[in-house]
Design brief:
The structure is a homodimer of 311-residue chains.
Chain A lengths: L8 H8 L3 H11 L5 E2 L5 E2 L2 H15 L4 H17 L18 H17 L3 H37 L5 H19 L10 E6 L7 H12 L3 E6 L4 H11 L3 E5 L4 H5 L3 H11 L4 E5 L1 H6 L7 E3 L3 H9 L2
Parallel strand pairs in A: 3-4, 3-5, 5-6, 6-7
Antiparallel strand pairs in A: 1-2
The structure holds a DNA duplex (30 and 30 nucleotides).
DNA sequence: ATTATGATGTCAAATGTATGTATAAACTAA
DNA sequence: TTAGTTTATACATACATTTGACATCATAAT
């Protein structure tokens, strides 16, 4: 999920904006987090711990005391694990101890498709919530979200599913993601992550996944939305001065409509060198051959951040 | 109302606008509420307590004394849910309260526009959250959301705002609404409320407001999304058998593209008589003259539900 | 008209709790 | 050494609770 899967207390402090002492006190007094320890006793945090701290900050900003915020999160965690038995009727849940991770994934997928088939948006969202809080975003995203969205699209194109099934399923995923990333509190001076669909593009969901990842990493996020006019992107960059701009291009349509698209963007990127411009998606992978100097291709935030570090 | 069912006195004060001292005094003197206590003696309120305090405020604003308001609520414990416009003994015209509310609204609006101006999505969402929990959806929707969205559109058309400011502001409102209504858990067998944009229509936000209202009223909600193909709506109705279908049509574009639109929909509606079909929005108000037999015009869920009852 | 009474919101003091920060002493790593 | 981590303790500020006082105002009694 992150560049690294563990953090020292100092890094956690920097990522959350909390002091190291406070992080320890929250652990001691309220059980806010439960980091593992190295042999020497040093605390070792994982990405989930960092997320939890950020969620606590968000709750505090909404009027919770830290004590109650922890209670609240723990309560919801409990609820999230009970939800398991809301499986559709035509599937009986197999809670055998011998289920491997693979079979569990395919069980989740089956449930998702069953929910989507009957247009049960909240069923989808509850399941995603459960998997998310149990296994984290990386697992959820790679093993469930992306394959699910992909096959939902397939089923629609193959006429296996009606359009409404595709729409409701996609929107359920979108709504889930929106709920997640708006539960993080980013510090005022955090760098900005701007996500936008390329003119002519209408698939926004991958961007929401990226935004959730960015929010977890401590960015403020802004979403420019579907198909903004060409100059809207420039206006936004000019005003917001984001650290990163990510553009989605899942189909070939945009390049058909405007063959100059990439060079236009490259030129825009060259004018704002404080901002890193990336383009991603299937459409971009197919057509964006020349790795531009200022506009680059990236399919995952992981590779994106690696790229930034090596610039 | 919310998923969570306990609040500290601080949050209750924030939610109701009462001071913590007053909340305690009301409890001590009149038994206004009876919160449980934590081990340390701190008060723990539940959603009912908060509701009750809000009802008391409403009664006081209508002229009741606090003492009588409590007595009134206790006497009418079972019908007290609807305490709307009951005339009190000594009704005094309190214009001061009204004007302060007016200035408060315009203050909120100013803040919203300030946030929107700098593309601060989470600023918008936090403010909406505050107003929502303090004054409820009706107030928020009528006095802030709809005027705000309206003027955001204006500013964009008048070139006062750039497109990105319009997009980010609208999306912030959308995300806020999505977060709200997905926090409602409707029972499995609740009637379904299906919202969809008419083919050619791309404004989805009003539908999200409607969905939130429906969720509050206990409906399961489903959102079919932007511009579904003509048959997608029929497929969805056929499969999901919603109790209510609401269609949004804010512009005139759809009727220009397909002059038969209304009669097509009327025909669809006539085939599913268990389902109530409504169409709303500025575009519909302008063009939908003949009040159809099965497809009807409605601009608010209030009027919609009144209409259903009188059918 | 003046006074007494009661209702109500606000304030203050005394006491305990919650929470963020600071320091000391021991230990670890580079 | 020097900087960072650990535990433990101390402390200040903010917050919660109880109790009672007080000012204001409307209403009833004088």
């Amino acid at each position: 999920m992150e560049q690294r899967d563990w953090y020292g207390i100092r890094q956690v402090a920097q990522l959350t904006g909390l002091s190291t002492q406070l992080i320890r006190k929250w652990e001691e007094r309220y059980g806010a987090v439960a980091p593992r320890r190295m042999e020497n006793g040093y605390r070792v945090y994982n990405a989930k711990d960092v997320m939890r701290l950020k969620q606590l900050q968000k709750l505090i900003s909404e009027g919770f005391s830290i004590r109650n915020a922890v209670l609240y999160l723990d309560e919801n965690k409990f609820e999230a694990e009970i939800v398991t038995d809301r499986s559709p009727d035509n599937l009986q849940e197999n809670t055998s101890l011998y289920t491997t991770k693979q079979t569990q994934i395919s069980q989740f997928m089956d449930m998702l498709f069953a929910f989507g088939e009957r247009g049960d948006s909240s069923g989808i969202q509850d399941l995603l919530q459960k998997v998310y809080s149990q296994y984290g975003l990386e697992f959820l995203s790679e093993n469930l979200l992306i394959p699910f969205l992909h096959e939902v699209g397939e089923r629609w194109e193959m006429r296996v599913w009606d359009e409404f099934q595709e729409h409701i399923s996609s929107l359920a995923v979108r709504d889930f993601l929106i709920r997640q990333y708006s539960s993080f509190l980013a510090p005022q001076d955090a760098p900005l992550f701007l996500a936008a669909c390329i003119p002519g593009e209408r698939h926004e969901i991958m961007l929401h996944i990226a935004m959730l990842e960015a929010a977890i990493r401590g960015f403020k996020t802004a979403f420019l939305g579907i198909s903004p006019a060409p100059n809207a992107l420039e206006d936004a960059v000019e005003s917001l001065r984001p650290k990163i701009v990510v553009l989605a291009m899942t189909t070939s349509a945009p390049i058909d409509e405007n063959p100059m698209l990439f060079s236009d963007l490259e030129q825009l990127a060259s004018r704002y060198r404080q901002t890193h411009f990336y383009i991603g998606g299937r459409g971009a992978r197919m057509h964006f051959k020349g790795t531009g100097k200022w506009l680059r291709f990236s399919d995952s935030l992981d590779s994106l951040f690696r790229d930034i570090e090596h610039r």
